[in-house]
Amino acid sequence: MAAGPALLPSAARARIRGPDFAAHVWSAPLIPAALALTFGIVLDRYLVIPIAGSLITAAILLVAWMIASFGRETFLALIYLWGGVGALAAAYHRWHLDGFRADDISRYAATQPVPVTVRGIVHGEVIRPRSQSGPLRIVPDSPSLRFVLRATALMLPDGWQTVSGRVQVHVTGQVRLRAGDEVECVGRLAVPEPPGNPGEFDYAAHLRSQGIRTTLAIRDGKHDGERDVPAAIRTIAGGLRSFAGWLSAIGDWCKNILEQALPESQARIARALLLGDGSAMTGEDWEQYLRTGVIHALAISGQHLVVLGGFVWIVLRVAGMRRRTGALLIAAFLMGYALLVGGRPPVMRAAWMVLALSGGLWLQRPVQPANSFALAWILVVACRPTDVFNSGCLLSFLAVAMLIWGSGQWQAREMDPLDKLIDESRPAWQRLLRWLGKIVLWAYAVNLAVWLAVSPLVAARFHLVSPVALLIGPPVVMLTSIALLTGFLVLIFAPIFAPLGMPFAALTSHALLGCDMLVSFGDNMPGAYWYVADIPEWWLWPFYVGLLAALLVEPLRRRWGWGLLAATGWLAVGLLVGALPRGREELRCTFLAVGHGGCTVIETPDGRTLLYDAGALTGPDVTRKYIAPYLGRRGITRIDELFISHADLDHFNGIQALLDRFGAGQVTCTPTFAQRSSKGVPVTLDAIRKRGVPVRITKSGDRLRAGAVQIDVLHPPAKGPEGKENARSMVLQIGHAGRTILLTGDLESPGLERVLSLPARKLDVLMAPHHGSRFPNTPALAGWASPKVVVSSQDKPRFENAEPYSARGAVYLATWPHGAVTIRIAAAGMSVSTFRSRRQWNCE
Amino acid sequence: MIFRSCWPALVSARRTLWHGTLQLLFPGSCWLCGQTLAEGHTGFCLSCRQTLTSDPQPTCPRCSSSIGPHVDLTGGCQRCRGTSFDFDECTRLGPYQGLLRDAILRMKRWQGEGLAEVLGALWAEHALARLRSKQPHVVIPVPLHWTRRWSRGYNQSQVLARALALALAVPFQPGWLRRRRRTGSQTALTAEERRKNLRGAFHAGRGLNLAGKTILLVDDVLTTGATASDAARALRAVGAERINVAVLAHAD
């Protein structure tokens, strides 16, 4: 016990043990508890502490707390208590991630999907993403839905086996389903794969943080138009038997009202705004709000509860309801609303805070915003400890922390009597104008403070910085608040008598239209937003710990000027370190795992970045999902040259999005690229032209240089060869430090024969043409190239043809299952490593 | 037997748990000075409570203004002797100064309702015996005009009156008296102007008969007594027999 206080310098001890400190802790006792809890969870996330270890630590600390609290060492007792809380939180977090029951359905799943029949209950909302189409998509999106299934039984050869656990279900097709339905599904059960590329979103970890370890892919046979196929999802018991079922029925009913009352495009936003159902909006709609930094206006959060709660409160009070009764009603109403719209962390944060406020009103106790804030954090974390790392959750709490602790600074000072007298002597219109001016100024000041606080986190999580939010933020919040209120009135009045809802529907629709126009305007402004590379954690952590300290510690809070200076200094440090030239002594060539498609990133020793193809069968999302995160992770913000191997969409449909995010110095394509009669080609060429990026045509015999790296174009010639587009794929031979890499695109006959007629090579790395398909990957090619390593950019294999290469002793690496394959060539030698399977070879 | 011996300990443990949880969720602090409250206290700290409830001077039973010692109180004090009131008596919690004045001013903002609730409870607790001795049949607050109630968010007199009625266990009837006319601010007016300003501003509920009843009329501040008197007149008109006014503070 004596060791504890000895750790603190005596001066510090004297200071914090003083009466002032004690008063501070007890004025918001949940703040240190919330901090301890968070610290425990963060520690567990990074150190992976076994549950037993955390629990024993917690037990020791709590016993120490009890012993110490009998004595006079109150401060020491508190330290023990907080330590105990932290250790308990760590154990809880670990249990949430790893504590699955013995009969969890994940026991029956593996990386390779297995066909199963499973029964369970639809848990939570059924999400129906809006199908996307466009010239850059190869296969149009079929209607689909996804939901979480609480599994109850699994069909095994000897009958139904009781199982537990949640399963993330993806369904291709259209099925009528609702939360709470009991269903029987036929599909392919699998364990989600870890990410295939550096920087890629970890879907498996995301599911795991929600307590899900398995996925089920279902193709509804009826959708394919096939006959005599039993339905892949059969509802055993439906209807409104559960609370979740009722909630989703009410949600559907509200959606119908909005759709009838509003024009289609506004109804989509209204559904997201009022009911938290963003599935009707396209990815591009969301992106636009995200890019301009005003997505918070759409994501249901505190703003929504404040507007709705405030309105209902006024109505109740005008109707003469007592404050205490009103507070209870408001709490119940807003809690119900928060659950109706999906109960995600930002809205639950606000709902818990409202509950705390109402509790205070009911108990007639003064409410400490800081304590309620900590209570909300503790409750959100108790519901799901992994939300400590959830972006929406963090952003919501961060913004509110700025509002609460900053509110002392924001509040207008009381006018002194003289000013009051002067003010009263002004004409009414002047007073009104001055009042409005003050409000506008206040709104922009708050907006600026919140923006400064959340921007680093937004940049780290979404690779975006949106200065335009400083301009359009307050009006967007105002318009969405109006739309929210009037939309809510539509929901009340339209079902009673449709014409009653019409004026409100008109107001909602105009407010949303205005909001949309404002966001589009902001999106198109020069310098509205820019994409940034990864923000390193060593920069982010000190920034937010510092911000927290500045908010919590009174003497620091008073010196906010110094705080601002320190933050600016820290930003400068970050920018300087980021701008330091990175000594790349090697050529680095990474074949990204993009599924069926291709993207090879070549980083040359002189600091240039070249890309060979950027596309995938799954659509233009390839850039957002795989390519941009990888480039961000590598700290790359500009592409020097972009090679397009040929005019097949799965090799270039990500280029437009790539140009949006990264500048490009030049685009190089084959002589026949522009002649391809596919809608995607002119669209992409248009996008390239619009951004003023020069296009170069290259042909066999050309030799390009990037510092010490030499690039030879082996194919196609200026004209021909005839046949499919694949035959005219651009073949690049990259040479550095005596090593050679051959990039082949989708090369096939008769182009392949033309390349084989060139003198035979001794390659170090060969890209298996056409995603490793059987026809071009012949023994003849293997013999001609004699590669040491063969890389195939492919999805789960329908056709794999490693044999011709393995027969000659080459290492064959496909991006599925190995993940991204990185080749590093330096004077000392060459190394090959894979990202997902974590394998490595060194060649001297 | 064992159970019976354990019972008090269980009850006290439950109480400790409840208070501990409350203290953790809504740490008790004084509504006025913000100081952390000692265990078992609610609303105000000891020193604020003391200041609020100790009236430093004797008061006139008719108008509740502060009076000196040895004052002749037949027909009221010097201040009210010449004025006719339609109420019979008036009691106060204290003079309109210092902490009580701060509390009342803070109460009048729309966030002040919580403060009004606890202040009402304190008042009821402190003045219960005195108010009970008046034997009121019903407690009625001085109403605000609805426009004022909307802009302030609530009627402070109503909150105070409810607390008194609850403590006295007599009916609370805020609807029996209404303010018909929107009277302008009185702060800059003289006593005579106030009386003129208010004439006929109140009226009792329709069909109301208060014959033989003793009424406790509650307001927050009494300055000239014009408001309370006019409200009392409206109640007299429907037969009220005795009208006692209770105010938080008297502004001398």
How would you explain this protein's 3D organization?
The complex is a heterodimer of chains A (844) and B (252). Chain A is built from 31 helices and 25 strands. The longest helix of chain A is centred in the middle third of the chain and has 35 residues, at 428-462. A 9-stranded mixed β-sheet of chain A has the order 15-14-13-12-11-10-23-24-25. The model of chain A is unreliable at 1-23 and 223-227 (pLDDT under 50). Chain B has a single domain, classed as Rossmann fold (3-Layer(aba) Sandwich), CATH 3.40.50. Chain B contains 8 helices and 6 strands. Chain B has helices at residues 2-25, 46-53, 98-107, 113-133, 146-152, 156-168, 191-198, 226-237, and strands at residues 89-95, 138-141, 177-179, 202-204, 214-222, 242-250. In chain B, helix 3 (98-107) crosses helix 4 and helix 4 (113-133) packs across helix 6 (156-168). The longest helix of chain B is centred in the N-terminal third of the chain and has 24 residues, at 2-25. Chain B is globular. Chain A binds chain B through residues 23, 26-30, 317-318, 323, 356, 359-361, 363-368, 371, 375, and chain B through 22-29, 31, 34-36, 42-43, 113-114, 117-118, 121, 150, 153-154.
SSE blueprint:
The complex is a heterodimer of chains A (844) and B (252).
Chain A: H1 3-6, H2 10-16, H3 19-27, H4 30-47, H5 51-70, H6 74-98, E1 114-127, E2 144-156, E3 159-162, E4 166-172, E5 182-190, H7 203-209, E6 212-219, E7 233-237, H8 243-261, H9 264-275, H10 283-291, H11 302-318, H12 323-340, H13 345-363, H14 369-383, H15 391-410, H16 417-425, H17 428-462, E8 464-465, H18 468-493, H19 498-524, E9 530-531, H20 537-552, H21 554-558, H22 560-579, E10 587-591, E11 597-603, E12 609-616, H23 621-633, E13 638-644, H24 649-652, H25 655-661, E14 663-669, H26 680-690, E15 695-697, E16 703-706, E17 709-715, E18 731-736, E19 739-743, H27 751-756, E20 765-767, H28 769-772, H29 779-785, E21 789-792, H30 803-806, E22 811-814, H31 815-818, E23 821-826, E24 829-834, E25 840-843
Parallel strand pairs in A: 4-6, 12-13, 13-14, 14-15, 19-20, 20-21, 21-22
Antiparallel strand pairs in A: 1-2, 1-5, 2-3, 2-4, 5-6, 5-7, 8-9, 10-11, 10-23, 11-12, 16-17, 17-18, 18-19, 23-24, 24-25
Helix pairs in contact in A: 4-6, 4-14, 5-6, 8-9, 9-19, 11-12, 11-13, 11-18, 12-13, 13-14, 14-15, 15-17, 17-18, 18-19, 20-22, 23-25
Chain B: H1 2-25, H2 46-53, E1 89-95, H3 98-107, H4 113-133, E2 138-141, H5 146-152, H6 156-168, E3 177-179, H7 191-198, E4 202-204, E5 214-222, H8 226-237, E6 242-250
Parallel strand pairs in B: 1-6, 2-5, 5-6
Antiparallel strand pairs in B: 3-4
